[in-house]
Structures are given as C-alpha cells and as structure tokens.
Amino acid sequence: MSMSSQKNVEEILSGFKAISLDDVQKASLLRRKDSKFIFSVEKLPVILKELQSDYDVLEIDKKRYQNYHTTYYDTSKLEMYNMHHDGRVNRHKIRFRKYDSTDIVFLEVKKKDPKGVTTKKRLKIENGNTIILSKEEEFLSSCTPYRNRNMYPVLENTFNRITLVHRGQEERITLDYQLNFSKTQGDVIVDLPGVAIGEIKYQNRLSASVFVGVLKRNKISPRRFSKYCTGMAMLNPELKQNLFKQRIRRVNKLNKLYLENINK
Fold it and tell me: Is residue 83 situated within a structural domain?
C-alpha cells in the first residue's frame, strides 16, 4: 500500500469509535465459524467508510491498525500443509504470533472440524521466544497429535491488521494488508502490497452481517484462503498445490494490477 493510501486508511479509521483490547478479547470467538474474502487493497478505504456506523475499531497506543509477525511450524513431511491441500478434516495449524503493538507472543493452535467450526487455543509465551521447549511441547501434546521432535519453523509472515467488532451482535472482522511471506532460512520473499484479506468470525447467521452486505455491493465474494498454505505454495513451487493454483492466480492478478496502477 502506498503512503498516500495508508494515510487515507488512517483518516477513515479516525472516524470509528475506538475500543480497547479488553473489549475485543470479550468478542474473541475462539470457537467460531469464519469466511474469508480476497480483494484489491485499493478497495479498502471504500469498504471501511461503509462500516463506520455499525462497527468499532481496536485501538492500542492511539494506533488503529496493528503489525503482526507469524512463524508457522510444520512437520518434516509438511503434514499440516498437505492435509489442508487435500481437504482433510480435523486439521491443525501451529504458529507463534507476535503482536507488535503489545510485544506479546502466543503459541496458537487452530483446528477445523468436519462441521467447518474453527477452534483456537493459545499459550502466552512469557519470554517472547518462538521456540518449542518443554512448556510449549506440553501445550501442543494436550491439543494436537504433534510433538516438538517432529516440528520445525517453515514460514514467516508479516502483515498489518485492522480489527472491527460489531456493536450489536457476536461478530468480529479482521482486515489484513501489506502481506509478506518469507522462508525461515534464506532470503526468498513474496511481497503482496496490492492484496487485502477480509475475514468475518461469527457464531450465528452470516447473512445478517453488514460487512458481508458491503462486500456484496462491492462485488467481492467469499473465497477460501490460508495465509500459511498460500505462502508455502508461492515460496515452494515444488510442493503439491493443484488445489491452490486458482487462488494463487487471483492473488498474483490483484497484486500485478495494483503495482501497474501505482507505477503509471
């Protein structure tokens, strides 16, 4: 996102009512359903303007977007990546996520069940490290079939996130942009400044969502998307990725059009 676009986003966010991290955590929906949307980052200001009257925005230290840094772990055979690719149920994602605005690090486990319900469990890491030691291994053993001896860091991911909470129902929105993927070893990087990822987390009816209605008016439809799988596939073309090719083409197209527009 260009400096002028970022400034525009910040100006629009200043028109939202701010809420604290404690308020957001009350709406954390650690067991929820979710839907994701991929769209051009150039549409982000328009979408935000249409959400002001129904949603509040997370503010930390007077900042209304936060920087995230994620380290994903997988087995030596990339079992979690392959299970996602093959559409297997009861699959997991394991990651360390650093919330730069608070310097807090969590070890997080996400599991999707056969009904499409996502459950997230997490462990606060007191020393801020992203290494699986005895305490972390005990946590993983309690909620996954994986152990430290089979786990390795395989992907780094950074992005900016805007978090919105609906004022009247159990619904939380995240809007991610400035996506960057890199290998944990080496200097191979995929940078996607032209792509935004919207996600709605909810417990009841999706059709009643103001956010979904706004996206429909902007001709944006739900699409399956995993930052982990997309980053791994783009950085490692030798991996099995037939089922991801369509969404990768979509991401590349959005990014290419954005870069062409800002370079005119």
Answer: no
